[in-house]
Write a structure and sequence with these properties.
four-stranded antiparallel β-sheet, elongated, five-stranded antiparallel β-sheet, 19 strands, alpha+beta, 8 helices
Length: 394
């Protein structure tokens, strides 16, 4: 018996040594990491290729796996999420987690946040981009669910919840998300709106985009945005800040108005009237056109023109500036005649022909209508003289 026992012991030692020799010079196998709640985190092993690097699950997949294993409310959702997002976010940005009652059932069992995940290069593991997700976590009948909205990677993770407010009039709040994309000279903010409908995150078609936003708020169930100035020199000096309004119309996020903060010249008043007309505010448009016909510009010295292909500072060529001023007034009269005819029920094509005749339209007008320097100004052609200004946008 003793001899047999030694034989078995020797065989066991041999097997262990053989295993150690087999593993020598190779990477140690990696096992799932566990947190304080004994829930598997982040790591997967490629069983088909034991020598491969450990693969990290996508952030949202990992969160869904963990939430699926929980059946009691989480005491501190901010801390719970922050702990799990940290390994995915090299910049370690603090989360803003909003606990709210999206379905208005009397219980605040929904959490809204924006999560950021590094996008790594498959070969080097270096961070290539940062992607952001709008998420809603819901707890109902002992079960967590997570639904998400993906934002463009070009925003580099710069996304947040602007507000949670009612935009549809059903007494249930919508989520307004805002992403920022930095250009060479200007920041552009993009706004999207989602509703929580029957336990599902639904995002409306349409996006509100504005440059250099100076103010954003909800007023009378509308998203109100102020800004619009583009910082590049090529945009030109004619720009003025405006205020836009957006509303949920026919299940889409649509712009319902644009009003310029200042209209110091007939040209600016003309543009303001055209936007009023575009959004259906006919009386306001008629007033703006009438004012453009009557008002006088004190000076064009702060502006710039393109005359004969050259960028010319205002105040240098008074004759051409005077002709520009006259053309703007004539064009304002044309737009007033056009709107009046359309309001009477005349079809747009015949209304355009009538307005051109009454205002004495001449192709030479185009030289002066397109004289304001900068690409932020609308550009007219003979065939677009009667067009909606929204069709002439950048």
């Amino acid at each position: 018996m003793k001899r047999n026992g030694l034989r078995y012991l020797g065989a066991g030692i041999g097997i262990v040594m053989l295993c150690l020799l087999t593993l020598a010079g190779r990477e140690r196998p990696k096992f799932p990491v566990h947190n304080s709640q004994n829930v598997a985190l982040i790591l997967d092993v490629d069983a088909a290729n034991p020598s491969s690097e450990t693969v990290r699950r996508p952030l949202l997949d990992q969160l869904r796996i963990e939430l699926n294993q929980l059946h009691e409310p989480i005491r501190d959702m901010t801390d719970w999420l922050q702990t799990r997002v940290v390994p995915y976010d090299s910049e370690k940005e603090p989360l803003n987690v909003i606990q709210t009652d999206l379905d208005k059932d009397g219980v605040s069992n929904e959490w809204v946040s924006v999560l950021v995940e590094d996008i790594l290069d498959n070969q080097t593991g270096v961070v290539q981009a940062r992607k952001s997700y709008g998420v809603v976590i819901d707890f109902k009948e002992g079960q967590f669910t997570l639904q998400s909205l993906n934002f463009s990677s070009e925003n580099n993770g710069r996304t947040k919840v602007m507000t949670i407010n009612d935009l549809t009039g059903d007494s249930k709040p919508e989520i307004v998300w805002v992403s920022t994309n930095s250009g060479a000279h200007t920041n552009f903010s993009s706004y999207a709106v989602s509703s929580w409908l029957g336990g599902t995150l639904e995002t409306y078609v349409g996006t509100a985009v504005i440059a250099s936003v100076s103010k954003a708020e909800i007023r009378e169930r509308k998203l109100e945005l102020s800004g619009g100035l583009i910082g590049s020199v090529g945009a030109g000096p004619w720009q003025k800040e405006f205020r836009e309004s957006y509303a949920i119309v026919e299940n889409k996020l649509k712009r319902t108005g644009r009003v310029y903060v200042q209209s110091p010249t007939p040209y600016h008043r003309l543009i303001s009237g055209m936007w009023a007309e575009s959004h259906g505010y006919r009386e306001q448009a008629l007033r703006d056109y009438s004012e453009a016909v009557e008002m006088q510009a004190t000076s064009y010295q702060d502006y710039a023109f393109i005359f004969e292909g050259e960028w010319v500072q205002g105040g240098i060529n008074p004759d051409k500036e005077a002709e520009f001023d006259r053309t703007i007034k004539r064009f304002s009269q044309l737009r007033k005649e056009l709107l009046t005819e359309v309001s009477r029920g005349v079809d747009p094509q015949n209304a355009c022909l009538s307005a051109k005749k009454k205002a004495g339209f001449d192709k030479v007008w185009l030289t002066y209508l397109n004289a304001p320097a900068g690409y932020a100004n609308p550009h007219w052609e003979e065939g677009t003289i009667c067009s909606d200004i929204a069709l002439l946008e950048l």
